[in-house]
Amino acid sequence: MATHRCKQIDLALQGGGSHGALTWGVLDRILEDERLQIDGISGTSAGAMNAVVLADGLERGGRNGARDALHAFWQAVSDAARFSPIQRSPWDRMTGNYSLDHSPAYLWFESLTQLVAPSMLNPFRINPLRQLVERQVDFDRVNACRKVKIFVTATNVRTGRAHIFRQPRLSVDTVMASACLPFMFEAVEIEGEAYWDGGYSGNPALYPLVDDQGCRDLVVVQINPLVRRQLPETAREILNRLNEITFNSSLVKELRSIQLLHQLIEAEGLELQYYRAMRLHLIHAEREVEELSASSKLNSEWHFLTRLRDQGRLWADRWLDENFDSIGHESTFDLNELFQDTFRPIMEQERSGTGGDQGKGQ
For residue 134, what are the contacts with CB-CB under 8 A and spacing of at least 6? Predict the structure, then answer.
């Protein structure tokens, strides 16, 4: 049970295949800390799976139940992957490289998905992950859970916009829609609409948490690197970086909108206390994620998943050590620093006053 000293946080969880085990570690550490209470979670793809598994376990057995449920889910993911033909090459196993870039089965499957539509590649719509989620998650419990609010993002294929599913309408379909990569699976149809992976429109969507008045501290758990110091050179590196930019773009736009809103409130002296009080935080370690190749998102070996879990726990542990006192008082994620080079020429003009004079002289 939460006490009066317990601090409430909302969590925004990105998708990223097996890299979602990083988020598992973050959640495991947060659930372990009774000073914190999770009020709401917005998740996409693997983030959505982590969210519904947590809610199911929390409803069934409290914090420990949620931790056990997350462990059981990722164990089941690893067990199912043992029979997959897509495995690391012997050389990668010998060198401790978790990438699948040299796996013949992975390279063949990747090429095939670029040439053959999912309806032809998988006419019987076989999806082992769907069966796994159905076995591991009781959605009646998820929808009955009042301890945490869950928001799942999917992309409407027709409109290209994010659609947010929430309790009491969460189901295996909504989660699989959020994780539906269009090159691998046919769109998931829900009530006459077709949906693809939510990462294209909200990875994760922040606005359900921003609009929720129950909590003002929003923690983004980011597992896809925003910045890479080394420029991509090979065709694979270029493709991987394009995918990262694509799946981060919606998050960057929402963060930029929040920053502009804060700047407008400060500049105009607007009395929008509801938005003024919103505090942003980020749990992320870019250097560690940069070392992981995109293909490793399909690597579900138990040793790799637990390694990622432990890394995620370490991220969360460091973040709590440095920032716990700030929760409930101030942001620890500086949006101005993130976007400092976005409109630098315009900001310099505004500071010098030349922008307005030029407009008047035209």
Answer: 172
Q: Exposed, middle or buried: residue 344 (CB in 10 Å: 0-12, 13-18, 19+)? A: exposed
Q: How many CA atoms lie within 13 A of 279 on its CB side?
A: 19
pLDDT band at 124 (very low <50, low <70, confident <90, very high): confident
Phi, psi of 303 (to 5 degrees): -65, -40
| pTM > 0.85 | yes
What is the distance between the alpha carbons of residues 162 and 199, in angstroms, rounded to a whole number?
A: 9
DSSP reduced 3-state for 151: strand
Q: 3-state DSSP call for residue 48? A: helix
**Among 39-48, 303-312, 338-347, which stretch is predicted with the lowest mean pLDDT?**
338-347
Residue 80 CB: number of other CB atoms within 10 A?
A: 15
C-alpha–C-alpha distance, residues 262 and 331, integer Å: 12
Cα–Cα distance between 203 and 197 in angstroms, integer? 9
| Residue in the structure block whose two tokens are 């370490």 | 314
Decide: 320 and 29 in contact? Cβ < 8 Å. Answer: yes
pLDDT tens digits along 311-321: 999 999 999 99
The average confidence (pLDDT) of the chain is 87
CA–CA distance, 175 with 46 (Å, rounded to integer): 9
